[in-house]
């Protein structure tokens, strides 16, 4: 073959399939994020709680999941759970695996956000007689939110890129379709270039949008 | 129930797989770190061309999934360039390219964390750029770079598991091969053992990183996480009226304590 | 579709690669000449497919395909250099001339003929649909031809075309290798897997053929339970 044989036109009939794959990528990522961000907040609170039991559960979860490859988690969900009577299809396993993975990292991100709040904030809130829940809700969490927003944007990108791993267990997202078409046409170079361009466009768009949406919030001075 | 008795037979094979994972990761990280240093230097250099090239490379690599990069190296490049790339070189190449992009960012932020004064001091001593980097800036930057570098290393070890899909038999690939050879039995324990293997390696590496971080950082800031005692202790003392007055004076209308 | 033919020697046709010219006049740069001149034939193979080609405990290559290759080399009076690769790599190696021929489960079809040439087949395999024996509802070919039936195949194999012909309504799920398809079948994630019978029978000593369906053109596609 060779570079002179590159031909994008032959792939035109396959573009709809790639399009559906791209949509599936976004779908899977969105679901995983929707699951993992709230769970991440809960986990972070557990990580910081007084309750030793909650603290250790959260810590163990974070340490275990962060140090295991995503593919291994997906394989366990997809191939092992059914053997123990838990029915789970490829899509569910993909979303769940991504969510489990993302939750662990989100917990760490949010926890670091809490750590960045000066002790004075807690003291002031306490001195005003606020209960723990009120203190968190009115004083601490809004500030944590502002601090972690940029990093959460990175995490969203991370999830979108991680969705590609789900192709291995048969989730028909972009990488899966790209490979599928490639194995019958052998047009791997053109196909993977197209896929790469989609991911790049996606990531850059998400980063840009995220910066725009959170820029004001992140840089607003406290008290406004 | 988990199949017992099978695991011991294949423990040796899994350990071999683990060794191969480590070998693959080590090779890629050496290349990736070298590439990262070059890229980081390019990113913070004075020449716009170098900065732009490095930025383009880093942004591109960080904006695509590793799987796509791996497939590109293994399937696409051979067909386009009329060469053959077997699984092992393809995996190393892809892992090196991927980790070099992240290392480039780590090196860049490490270099930029060094105050300008250090550069100026070096220049005033008559040292050329290369010497300043090597004797003044990089040694200090290295300290800052340790935590994120360990992060990249751990990430690369986890990514090496994806080499199993192009047929390279490392830890995960070995586990799947064992499962295939015993497909009539329940081999869930093999996958758990594989997960455990990755956990041991990655967790240990993170702990080493935390230790190094401790050893090389002087704690300049007081602890910012409030202790439970501090949260229980009232901030202002005295009768309620004076308490209220004090608080009004010292906090803004959001209840945030104003620092003097 | 014709009978599924497996285990074919692939010779790279010089026609596909060399510029059109006065081939008769010069000594052809054919692969054969190269091989004879070099004294070694480079053969790209995939392993792990007993009994046609596999490695024994000592790592020596054994199997039917290996026997054929040995015979070929003996006839040409050359030595063999085996290059281990995978399914996708074989085509690339032939095209980039890193290997002279490949001996493997390599079914000839029009798509592949665009880049490589084939000899006459020396072995016939049968594409097999394998499902679990507790699936009583999957007894005949017609049972597989429903959209809720998921069939796992290895990427790049000819199983996709066969399923499109014989069970077009079924849903195809692609995995990267036979290991993953078998794993998916065991976990119940798919209803069946489709591969050559050799690959399907491997590692499953208890499997039985439960049915053998002959399609209109006399091409067999068998169904076996495991």
What features would you describe in this structure?
- The complex is a heterotrimer of chains A (224), B (260) and C (226).
- Chain A has helices at residues 15-47, 52-66, 70-80, 90-115, 119-127, 132-162, 174-185, 188-219.
- Chain A is mostly helical and 224 residues long.
- Chain A has one domain (3-219): MetI-like (MetI-like fold).
- The longest helix of chain A is centred in the first third of the chain and has 33 residues, at 15-47.
- The longest helix of chain B has 38 residues, at 6-43.
- Chain B has ten helices and no strands.
- Chain B has 260 residues and is mainly alpha-helical.
- Chain B is extended.
- Chain C is α/β, with parallel strands linked by helices and 226 residues long.
- Chain C folds into two domains: 5-124, D-Maltodextrin-Binding Protein, domain 2, CATH 3.40.190; 127-225, Periplasmic binding protein-like II (D-Maltodextrin-Binding Protein, domain 2), CATH 3.40.190.
- Chain C has helices at 14-17, 31-38, 64-76, 87-95, 110-113, 141-144, 159-166, 178-186, 197-201; strands at 5-6, 8-11, 40-45, 54-55, 61-62, 79-84, 101-104, 117-118, 123-124, 127-131, 150-154, 171-175, 192-196, 208-214, 220-225.
- Chains in contact: A-B, A-C, B-C.
- At the A-B interface, α2, α3, α5, α6 and α7 of A face α2, α3, α6, α8 and α9 of B.
Short structural summary:
Chain A has helices spanning 15-47, 52-66, 70-80, 90-115, 119-127, 132-162, 174-185, 188-219. By secondary structure, chain A is an all-alpha fold.
List keywords for this structure.
heterotrimer; A: 224 residues; mainly alpha; MetI-like fold; 75% helix; elongated; C: 226 residues; alpha/beta; D-Maltodextrin-Binding Protein, domain 2; 2 domains; six-stranded mixed sheet; five-stranded mixed sheet; 9 helices; 15 strands
Element pattern of chain C in H and E: EEHHEEEHEHEHEEEHEHEHEHEE
Please count the beta strands of chain C (DSSP E, at least 2 residues each).
Answer: 15
pLDDT below 50 for ≥5 consecutive residues: which ranges of chain C?
1-28, 205-221
Distance from first to last alpha carbon of chain C: 26 Å
Structural class of chain C: alpha/beta
Subunit arrangement of the protein:
heterotrimer
């Amino acid at each position: 073959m060779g570079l002179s044989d590159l031909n994008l036109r032959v792939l035109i009939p396959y573009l709809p399939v790639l399009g559906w794959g791209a949509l599936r990528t976004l779908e899977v990522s969105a679901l995983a994020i929707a699951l993992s961000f709230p769970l991440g907040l809960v986990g972070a609170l557990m990580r910081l709680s007084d309750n030793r039991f909650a603290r250790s559960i959260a810590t163990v979860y974070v340490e275990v999941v962060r140090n295991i490859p995503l593919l291994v988690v997906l394989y366990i969900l997809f191939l092992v759970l059914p053997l123990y009577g838990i029915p789970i299809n490829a899509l569910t396993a993909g979303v769940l695996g991504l969510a489990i993975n993302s939750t662990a990292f989100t917990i760490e991100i949010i926890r670091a956000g809490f750590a960045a709040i000066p002790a004075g904030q807690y003291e002031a809130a306490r001195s005003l007689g606020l209960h723990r829940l009120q203190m968190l809700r009115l004083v601490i969490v809004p500030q944590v939110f502002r601090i972690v927003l940029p990093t959460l944007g990175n995490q969203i990108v991370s999830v979108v890129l991680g969705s590609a791993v789900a192709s291995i267990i048969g989730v028909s997202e972009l990488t899966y379709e790209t490979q599928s078409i490639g194995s019958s046409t052998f047009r791997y170079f053109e196909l993977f270039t197209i896929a790469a361009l989609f991911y790049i466009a996606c990531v850059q768009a998400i980063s840009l949008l995220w910066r725009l949406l959170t820029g004001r919030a992140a840089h607003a001075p406290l008290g406004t | 129930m988990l199949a017992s008795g099978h695991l011991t037979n294949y423990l040796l094979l899994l350990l071999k797989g683990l060794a191969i994972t480590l070998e693959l990761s080590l090779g890629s990280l050496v290349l990736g770190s070298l590439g990262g240093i070059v890229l980081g230097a390019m990113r913070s250099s004075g020449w716009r061309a170098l900065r732009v090239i490095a930025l383009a490379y880093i942004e591109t690599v960080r904006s695509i999934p590793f799987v796509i990069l791996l497939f590109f190296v293994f399937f696409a490049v051979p067909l386009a360039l009329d060469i053959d790339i077997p699984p092992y070189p393809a995996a190393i190449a892809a892992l090196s390219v991927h980790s070099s992009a992240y290392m480039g960012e780590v090196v860049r932020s490490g270099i930029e964390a060094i105050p300008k004064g250090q550069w100026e001091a070096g220049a005033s001593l008559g040292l050329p750029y290369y010497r300043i980097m090597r004797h003044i800036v990089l040694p200090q930057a290295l300290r800052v770079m340790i935590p994120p570098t360990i992060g990249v290393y751990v990430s690369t070890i986890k990514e090496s598991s994806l080499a199993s899909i192009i047929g390279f038999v490392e830890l995960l690939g070995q586990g799947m091969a064992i499962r295939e050879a015993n497909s009539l039995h329940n081999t869930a324990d093999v996958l758990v053992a594989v997960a455990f293997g990755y956990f041991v390696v990655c967790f240990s590496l993170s702990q080493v990183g935390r230790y190094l971080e401790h050893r090389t950082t002087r704690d300049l800031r007081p602890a910012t996480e409030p202790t439970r005692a501090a949260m229980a202790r009232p901030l202002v003392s005295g009768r309620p009226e004076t308490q209220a007055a004090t608080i009004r004076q010292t906090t803004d209308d959001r209840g945030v304590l104003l620092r003097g | 579709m014709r009978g599924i033919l497996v285990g074919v020697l692939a010779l790279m046709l010089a026609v596909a690669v060399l510029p059109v010219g006065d081939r008769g006049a010069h000594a052809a740069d054919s692969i054969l000449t190269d091989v004879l001149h070099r004294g070694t034939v480079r053969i790209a193979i995939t392993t792990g497919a007993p009994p046609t080609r596999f490695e024994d405990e000592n790592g020596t290559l054994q199997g039917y395909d290996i026997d054929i290759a040995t015979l070929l080399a003996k006839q040409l009076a050359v030595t063999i250099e085996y290059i281990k690769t995978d399914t996708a790599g074989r085509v690339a190696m032939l095209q980039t001339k890193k290997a002279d021929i490949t001996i493997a489960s390599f079914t000839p079809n029009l798509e592949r003929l665009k880049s490589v040439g084939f000899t006459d087949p020396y072995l016939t395999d049968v594409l097999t649909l394998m499902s679990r024996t507790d699936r009583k509802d999957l007894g005949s070919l017609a049972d597989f031809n429903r959209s809720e039936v998921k069939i796992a195949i290895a990427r790049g194999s000819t199983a996709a075309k066969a399923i499109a012909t014989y069970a077009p309504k079924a849903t195809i799920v692609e995995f990267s290798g036979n290991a993953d398809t078998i794993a998916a079948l065991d976990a119940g994630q798919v209803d069946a897997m489709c591969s050559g019978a050799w690959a399907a029978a491997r590692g499953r000593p208890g499997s039985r053929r439960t049915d053998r369906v002959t399609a209109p053109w006399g091409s067999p596609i068998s169904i076996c339970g495991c």
